[in-house]
Amino acid sequence: MDPAASLANRAFEREGWARERLAAHAGRVMVVVIGPVATGLRIDSSGRFQSTPLAGHAPDLTLTLSPLGVPSLLANPARWSEFVAVDGDAALAATLQELAHTLPWFVEQAFANALGPILGQRVADAGRRLLAFPEYAAARVGESVASYARDEVGLLPHGDEMRMFAEQTTALAERADTLAARFDALTARLGA
Hints:
By secondary structure, the chain is of the alpha+beta class.
């Protein structure tokens, strides 16, 4: 069995309600594309995933994710729409999105079963923070570079300078429009 199908089935192993939701889409084929890797999955009548070859027929749903966005999505599945491009069966996509929102709970439950409720919760929280770290670090580096370019090197304008520039640009555009209107009026008078 494909590792993706095995992992998904293990997550929903004890969750009959989740398998019921998936069973409503029995026979549907979806493709999950993460960077250059694509995996075909079919939902069987019991709500479990089965690996399926990609060749054969067009999938009912294609989910495309950037490899760089996967950790952020796993850290916060509520950002599904931001990281997952959906093409195809909207009802199946909505079901998968809803199930993705419960993924942190499944992880917490698995850690709690393995390590105990307190330690399991702490490990799950640490895992979420680790998954969110690359995005956090990239944002902080971006802010630092922008601050350096603005404050130290003077490449970027400060907020007051940008506001004044915008006001001056607006005033100049209004003056140019007024001048164009006067020119048109003068041209019309000379032509008459």
